[in-house]
Each structure stands twice: as structure tokens, then as C-alpha cells.
UniProtKB/TrEMBL annotation:
Protein's recorded name: Uncharacterized protein
Lineage, top ranks: Eukaryota, Fungi, Dikarya, Basidiomycota, Agaricomycotina
Organism of this sequence: Crepidotus variabilis
Length: 305
């Protein structure tokens, strides 16, 4: 059991390092890069857990990528209300029957195991995101689906994104929208308030044999679109240590501006997780509490001088 936890931490850790620089990994004006590959039959899904050791390096590279790092750094520094603590929401369990209808290969697989196997696929899912591009379209008014092209579509090491998330800010002060390539499994399995996702051709074996596909567009609003990449990578990897390092990088306290920026990022991640009804085994909330406490302590110490 301990070895399994260590393997899983290694897998997610690398994805988190990359993700911090990849904050814009899946963000653009409906033009970007995605993945190619679908869920394998149950026996292959189960066997994917044995790949966790091999996923370690790639995961870290994902969270260390320049794009997620920019996501963690790209938050503006608005007037910020800094409460002493960030309340944990009350979460309810998520029934995965609807998800299992979309993925027949998950039939009979316990819900807990479905969630546990997501980190073992993180490397393949991130690789899929990086190898997909959205084909430009003239239909800019709330399209319901968009065409994408997959590069290296025959590779066994990538898993195709299943949907495109059209993300907007819930703040009335912002009308901007960002597009994220996502996989249905991590969000459906871990977010009780995530919008329902229509069936996707990319989530079928047949949809994995072509170089192009049409992906459904799902719309959602969150308080902090700027930190969504960090949230996405945590759902994929479930690596608490990597999340902690992403929220508090080495030089985070070198200036007051950076300290306040950390507060913006942490609160943004927390607010997104609350709004989407994130189901977690307390690790994510523990990291958020810890990092928030540290940042608030530095702010209080500095402003009390």
C-alpha cells in the first residue's frame, strides 16, 4: 500500500511541476493543443496502474511546464479580501452510473477504483492535450461542438481529450472566455457540480482511429478561470505535494507583490474547487489550508510593522 502511494505521488508530482508553468496549457481563443486516445477496455484500464512508476517524470514535467507556471503567476492583483481561514465546503458523494454508461468498459468497476485509477492515466491525458489542436471556425457565438485535429493519433501513450470546456468568469466585471481541452473522467468522477457532459465521439474506440474529431463544447463559469489549469492538473494527478509546491514556489515570499499574488492564486483555486463541488480525500483542502495560513502569516507580519 505504501509503495502504491509513493508511486502515485511520483506520477502526479511531475504533472504538477509542469502544470505550474502550463497555466495556459489549455487556454486560448478556441485554438489550442490536445490529446488523442480513449479509455481502454477494463483489463487495460486496470493494468494502467502498473505504469505509475513510468509516469513519474512526465507528470512532473507537466506541472513544471511554462504554461501552467504562467497560470499560477498570471493572476492580476485586485483588491483582495483576506479572511483568516478558507472554509471547507460540505461535499456529497458522486454516483458514477451516468459516467459508466458513457464508458462501457467501466461497467462493474467500483466507484472508488475509478477515481483511484485517474492519476495512473495522467501522463497519457496530458500528452493527449498537448497533441491536439482546435480547428478555427467562423462560428464564434456559442458553438455546441468544434472540430479538432490529433497529432500522433496512433500513439499508445496518449489519451484523447473528450470535450472542450468554454470557461467564463462568474464575476460581472469580466466577460472574457477561455477554452480548455479536458477529459470527462476526472471531472465527472470528482466534481459533483460540474456541468453534465454529452457523449463524445473521442471517448469511443472508433473515435480513436481518425486524425480528426468533433468534440462537444461544455460551458461553465468559475470565480477564477486564471487558476483553472492548476485545478485541472490536481484532478488528473491527485498529488498534494506537487500542488503545495505549485502554490508556494521557491521565491514566493521575496516581495510583497509576490506574497499577495500567492493569496490571489490560492483563493482562486479554493473558490473554483468549492463552486465545482470537488470531492477529495481531504488532501487538497489540507494543502490549501496550510498554504493560506502561511501566506496570511507573512502578510500579517509585514503589515503590522
Amino acid at each position: 500500500m505504501l509503495a502504491r502511494s509513493q508511486n502515485r505521488a511520483a506520477v502526479a508530482g511531475s504533472v504538477f511541476d509542469n502544470c505550474c508553468s502550463q497555466a495556459q496549457l489549455v487556454r486560448v481563443n478556441f485554438q489550442f493543443s490536445c490529446s488523442r486516445r480513449v479509455l481502454q477496455p477494463t483489463n487495460r484500464v486496470r493494468s494502467s496502474c502498473s505504469q505509475q512508476m513510468r509516469l513519474s517524470k512526465t507528470s512532473r514535467d507537466t506541472f513544471a511546464s511554462p504554461k501552467v507556471k504562467r497560470a499560477a503567476k498570471s493572476c492580476m492583483t485586485p483588491r483582495l479580501n483576506i479572511p483568516r481561514t478558507l472554509a471547507r465546503p460540505t461535499s456529497s458523494d458522486i454516483e458514477l452510473e451516468a459516467l459508466k454508461k458513457d464508458f462501457a468498459e467501466l461497467s462493474g468497476v467500483p466507484d472508488g477504483f475509478v477515481r483511484e485509477m485517474v492519476p495512473s492515466m495522467a501522463q497519457s491525458m496530458v500528452a493527449g492535450i498537448e497533441r491536439t489542436r482546435i480547428i478555427p471556425t467562423n462560428n464564434t457565438v456559442n458553438p455546441t461542438e468544434l472540430r479538432v485535429v490529433f497529432y500522433d493519433s496512433e500513439s499508445e501513450s496518449v489519451m484523447a481529450p473528450t470535450h472542450i470546456l468554454d470557461l467564463s468568469s462568474s464575476s460581472k466585471a469580466s466577460s472574457s472566455r477561455q477554452a480548455f481541452l479536458i477529459h470527462q473522467l476526472p471531472f465527472a468522477a470528482n466534481c459533483s457540480k460540474f456541468p453534465s457532459m454529452p457523449a463524445s465521439s473521442a471517448a469511443t474506440p472508433a473515435g480513436n482511429k481518425t486524425s480528426t474529431a468533433t468534440l462537444p463544447v461544455v460551458r461553465a463559469s468559475v470565480p477564477s478561470p486564471e487558476t483553472f489549469s492548476l485545478f485541472q492538473m490536481y484532478l488528473y494527478t491527485k498529488d498534494a505535494s506537487a500542488l503545495r509546491a505549485a502554490l508556494l514556489p521557491i521565491d514566493w515570499s521575496s516581495s510583497m507583490e509576490k506574497v499577495v499574488n500567492r493569496a490571489v492564486v490560492i483563493k482562486g483555486l479554493w473558490s473554483n474547487a468549492c463552486v465545482l463541488g470537488t470531492l477529495d480525500n481531504e488532501e487538497m483542502w489540507d494543502v490549501i489550508d496550510e498554504c493560506w495560513s502561511v501566506v496570511c502569516g507573512v502578510i500579517e507580519k509585514t503589515t503590522s510593522r
